[in-house]
Design brief:
Shape: globular
Strand order of the largest sheet: 2-1-3-4
Helix content: 40-55%
Distance between the termini: 29 Å
Length: 242
């Protein structure tokens, strides 16, 4: 079984520790992650902005990079969600459509793979802190990733979970949305930051570094001391501390 990592642009450029945490966690279950060097952006910014031809160029690179993988895992529900748009991108292309459909079937967000494919719900982590959780829009709505992160957190010893008020509300990032409508985006993330502070949590956790980067920036600007982590990082740190 060949399992490959689709690292995503943000994790590759700014948050490589998220990918490293995934590698170490999955190695505990006998999964050795392959890393195709030819992978690039999934094409989501171009796709969302209406530049579908440019999105197809990126998509073809991704399709070729992971063609021989049995499973493709990503630390981002957003980028994994983009893979689900590939069949639409290539709906009139008899050569690339089957490849797009094949990649869609074998692509998983990290917690999806851990819980659904490996059947792992308890990684043996210990994390004695008060934690709240932001469900990113694409992961929860497009992929339906809702129960998996909660199941993993329920089994972390010492973790005190605090529900985030209005958790389903968007953080305001939305990729190019934040660039096109910065005032609206800023108001949305400020509201999200207010709710995070309201929980009095020590740690904010999520599954998508784009959302977490946006919220963390707002919290830092306000001088709040909330630690912001991807769930893979939290689990891996908890395993080391066990």
């Amino acid at each position: 079984m060949k399992v490959s990592m689709m690292i995503t642009c943000l994790s590759d450029a700014l948050y490589p520790r998220v990918g490293e945490a995934m590698v170490r966690l999955l190695a505990r279950y006998g999964v050795r992650l392959a890393f195709p060097q030819t992978q690039t952006c999934c094409g989501q910014p171009a796709f969302n902005s209406g530049y579908w031809e440019e999105a197809r160029t990126s998509a073809k690179t991704i399709l070729e990079a992971f063609e021989d993988s049995d499973f493709v895992i990503s630390p981002s529900g957003s980028c994994t969600g983009m893979i689900h748009h590939y069949p639409k991108l290539f709906e009139n292309d008899p050569v690339w459509l089957p490849k797009a459909q094949a990649l869609q079937r074998k692509s998983y967000e990290f917690t999806q793979f851990l819980v659904q494919v490996l059947g792992v719900k308890d990684v043996g982590a210990v994390f004695p802190h008060k934690v709240t959780y932001h469900p990113s829009c694409h992961g929860s709505r497009l992929l339906g990733v809702k129960d998996e992160p909660m199941e993993l957190m329920r089994h972390i010893k010492g973790l005190e979970f605090v529900p985030l008020p209005f958790a389903e509300d968007c953080c305001g990032f939305g990729g190019t949305f934040a660039v096109k409508m910065p005032d609206i985006s800023g108001a949305m993330v400020t509201e999200k930051g207010d709710h995070v502070v309201e929980t009095e949590a020590e740690v904010l956790v999520g599954l998508d570094m784009a959302c977490l980067m946006n919220i963390a920036g707002n919290l830092r600007y306000r001088g709040e001391k909330v630690r912001v982590m991807h769930l893979a990082e939290l689990l891996e740190e908890g395993v080391k501390g066990a």
